[in-house]
Amino acid sequence: MRTRITTAVLAAALTPLALTLSAPVAHAVPAAAPYDFNGDGRTDLAIGAPGATVAGQAKAGAVSVVYGSTSGPKTSTRTLLTQNTAGMPGAAEADDAFGSALASADLNTDGYADLLIGTPGEDGSDTNDGTVAIVWGSASGLSGARSLAGFFSTDYDRYGQALAAGDFDGDGDTDVAVGSTGPITLSLVDGPFSKTSTSNAGSGSGNDWWSSSNGITHLSSGDVTGDGHPRVVLHGRAAHNGAATTALADMKISNYVDWLQKLPAGFVSAVGDIDGDGHDDIAVGNDREASADPEGALGGKVTVVYGGPDGRDSGRAPLVLTQDTAGVPGAAEKGDRFGSDVCLGDVNGDGYADLAIGTAGENGSAGAVTVLYGSASGLTTNGATAYTQNTAGVPGASEQGDRFGERVTLTDHTGDRRADLTVSAPGENAGDGAVWSLRATATGPTATGSTSFGPGTTGISTAGAPSYGTALNS
Q1: Cα-flanking dihedrals φ and ψ of residue 428, to 5°?
Q2: Please, which residues have CB within 8 angstroms of residue 414's CB and are 6 or more apart in sequence?
Q3: H/E element, 430
Q4: Second label for 195, Cα 20 to 30 Å away, from 24, 181, 336, 367?
């Protein structure tokens, strides 16, 4: 394995690293939970539409933010973000793909979560250089923005195609991990962050585990070891055969030797504590057939890797799930794409993270979502439930090509400490896309009272194919 770690600063090249960090931000209030942009204790919903036309510019991209309420995401209280939004860096241009990736954290520790938006198609020093915007939270929601530092523009492209935020280097400040293509496939931008200073330190890495042409395609993070220091799950494609490659990374810069642990291969992942043991667990989705990926399976699969003090718990076998697993609704069929997305959150409020699995290829790509539940002994298929647009109470109807379940998220929009289920179908209405929200209850998500809305409801043009819901809260 070859690993290249380089360090840079946004200030002059010869400035010592110790002098380039931003002045520490006062920690006067507790940091807000991710995606709580207005600090009201309810998670808000960010929806990426990277195919959206903006001011006549095709695929410039847009992001809708719908704020949480006691009844769930409330479309009447929303913010529309594009690169033409006042204060946003850059300008909307064709093929920028603003909104391709999203992440959130209270970056300046003011009590309001901030939003990170990836724009991998942005042209900078070269074509598709990519950029990332930070949009600041406040009592009235999102307002004001700046660019996230980028250090290796000549050594990467599509900067911002994957994003994650957390204190990855263990220094007490929130950092941002950014995926890209090229010799540098992973960048770490060190916190702290403020609205006025862009003088952050950073580092970058390239590794033979994944190809430079695909780079890091997906990121997730959580406290897998239980030491309060989050690790990052990296996804890419192998250089020699294009197969999915997944690894657990310790992003502390001093760790050069064993900073990566191999994980079951997949294209997406989610991290959360399924069994309540204080170690976050990892769900890896691989929606490919075995003929398309060496670790794929008929209809797709999801592998749950349990966490432990050393990262993955080597004494505990991973749990492999397909639609042929006893208790999982449906049956494994070619093209189902079980594992198109995964998300972990406590739906029923019992203290254990539950798992939502997208199956975007089900029934001619009409799509479906399955929810399985956590317990003290791990994930169980007891009580597993599947949802489609044909489920009683769910708005709309299942149609081929909708891709319901392409993205899923479990997060508390109502403030009742239960994670509501949000599902996107970017193919709905010939590529307009749409989003569904199902309220959480003590027995799981309920279709009763569920809501749905598309790009037009939140101010995004339906010209072309905006693919609303390509990205959701991660």
Answers
A1: -55, 140
A2: 42, 68, 69, 70, 71, 72, 420, 439, 440
A3: helix 428-431
A4: 181
Tell whether 473 is covered by a domain.
no
CATH of the domain at 277: 2.130.10.130
Closest CA to 379 of 407, 411, 346, 412: 346
Q: How far apart (Å, rounded) are the C-alpha atoms in residues 46 and 81?
A: 10
CA–CA distances in Å: residue 85 to residues 91, 102, 219, 295: 8, 17, 27, 43
Q: Is there a contact between 454 and 468 (Cβ–Cβ < 8 Å)?
A: yes
Predicted local distance difference test score (pLDDT) of residue 40 = 96
Q: What is the largest CA-CA distance in the chain?
A: 64
Per-residue model confidence as pLDDT tens digits over 366-397:
999 999 999 999 999 999 999 999 999 999 99
Q: Which phi and psi (to 5°) does residue 408 adopt?
A: -135, 150
Contact 151, 128 (CB under 8 A): no
Using alpha carbons only, give the angle 309, 312, 313 rounded to the nearest 5 degrees.
Answer: 70
CA neighbor of 185 nearest in space, from 230, 130, 117? 130
Instruction: Establish if 9 belongs to a structural domain.
Output: no
**Position 214 in a domain:** yes
The residue written with tokens 């494994």 in the block is 332
Q: Say if 197 falls within a structural domain.
A: yes
For 18, phi then psi, to 5°, come to -65, -20
Report residue 74 as tokens. 């409330």
- Residue type (1 letter), 88: M
Give the whole-angstrom CA distance, residue 73 versus residue 59: 26
Is 31 in contact with 39 (CB distance < 8 Å)? Answer: no
- Structural domains counted in the chain: 1
Where does 143-243 show beta strands of DSSP type E? 145-147, 157-166, 175-181, 186-189, 201-207, 218-222, 231-237
User: Side chain identity at 186, as an amino acid letter?
Assistant: L
**Which pTM does this prediction carry?**
0.93
First to last CA, the chain: 29
Phi, psi (5° rounding) for residue 363? 50, 60
Report the alpha-carbon angle 207-168-282, nearest 5: 75
Q: Quick check: 64 and 49 in contact, CB under 8 A?
A: yes
| Mean of the per-residue pLDDT values of the chain | 91
Q: Helices in 349-427 by DSSP H: which ranges? A: 362-365
Tracing tokens 């739906």 back to the chain, one arrives at: 347
Selection from 151, 190, 194 nearest residue 174 by Cα: 190
Cα angle, residue 230 at apex, residues 195 and 312 outer, rounded to 5°? 160
- Which residue range is the domain that position 433 belongs to? 45-457
pLDDT band at 202 (very low <50, low <70, confident <90, very high): confident
**Rounded Cα–Cα distance for residues 412 and 68 (Å):** 8
Distance between CA atoms of 264 and 342, rounded to whole angstroms?
Answer: 14
